[in-house]
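Now for one specimen:
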Amino acid sequence: MQLTWLDSNSWLMEIAGKTILLDPWLVGSLMFNNLDWLFKGIKPKSYSIKQPIDLILLSQGLEDHAHPPTLKELDHSIPVVGSPNAAKVVKALGYTQVTSLSHGESYTLDNAISIKAVPGSLVGPQLIENGYIITDLIDQNRLYYEPHGYHSPTLKEESPIDVVITPVVGFNLLYVIPFLQGQKSTLELCKLVKPQFVLPTATAVGDVQYEGILAKLITQEGTVESFRQLLADYHLSTQVLTPKPGEIIELSLAKGVLT
């Protein structure tokens, strides 16, 4: 299993001989409803994916997960799996092979990978987006992704899970409104599914620069090192890996070591 963090929520995964592009933001800026004065994310460099992409996987329909400028540039014939809201976005952009997954539903890619949608982030009063459990059907290794740190209690039924990609630090608006869960929720997740590895996503250690009114009102809660200490305090053997943007991480999960 190879994982490459492309900064923010974006990941390139090579699992069971297949390449999955997850929540890609590869080019251009990030804005919500084109309101750059409110919030704007700037990547100092663009990412070019050289190998063929077998699947695009989208957890949410919001711009930081279904990034319109990136999706407009990618090949619209690539199969896409996403939450119902994300599926609407890519269908409107002209993608031709789109599968919408509701919670509990699964998708199989070439008999090599299974993708199961589970309840994920709360992004509205009655809107819960997707997290995913990705299973290598050849080696039976499993990865769980949820980009905002909202973890369903139903994950207990999925334990153990080998690799988790989720925030390990929290981000709050005006100090009190959490929009990224962090230390506590991910600690409880590690107790629940006992992963070998956790890789932080949507962290403050990437290269992305943020501007706008909202960016000035965001505060961070906890650090990667304090989360490592929490794992040690609870006698959990989970390792926290912190790749740099663009760095390839190769996991040898059968032996539980990083190569």
